[in-house]
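Side project, low priority. Logging it here so it doesn't get lost.
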Amino acid sequence: MSPHIDRIRQNIEPIRHEIINHPVYSVIHDLDDLKLFMQYHVYAVWDFMSLLKALQNNLTCTSVPWFPVGNSETRFLINEIVVGEESDVDLNGERKSHFELYLDAMQQCGADTGFILRFIDELKTSGDFGKAYEASATPGEARSFVNFTFDTIRSNKAHLQAAVFTFGREDLIPNMFLSLVRDMHKTFPDHVSVFKYYLERHIEVDGDHHSHLALQMTENLCNIDEAYWHEAEAAITRSLKKRVELWNGVYKAIMAKRPVEA
């Protein structure tokens, strides 16, 4: 792997450590806490899919008539990731995107999907993010997170999109959170089985195979351009800070509903 990749990994390690050890995980004690977490996190799952499709649009031909676009190796890398993310399998072996699988997990758990669904419905109708946020009462931290992702998409710079996709989104779910969900599943199997599957699938596919593909894609796009590598690292750092802000928002929301001690 490129020394540029090693440098980025070293430089972002402190903020990655902050995310993986964020206090939000330690305050998820019951199903109600988990529901609240999912109602924030689902925005990151949705805009991850948008970032993925932006990359596919930039790196392959997605219009007619078809013409070969870019490097065939990079086309292969993004297309393979898209197949896995957009048409994976659920617990019953049915094809679903990871976003649809997450919605299934929310519905099984009893989390409110109304916020994200109203957001999507308004965005489909008006194409206006501001109206979509207002219509869905999207939390401020989720708005900021999505805004950053779409700023990256609108940059139309594939190397930035790939860098944020690779380092800002993969491999950020700590083992302690998966253990917590597995323990919760023992007590509430009919409420948490789909979310448990989602997390395990995320680690198996996204955190392993897809992360290697994404690293190679980022390396191909930045290549030997030092300016691209520095720009990519700055974007990655900003994306990780947005994740911290999102988790801060979840943490505050969970703590706000706790009874005040006398």
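Brief comment: The first helix runs from residue 3 to 20.
Revisit when time allows.
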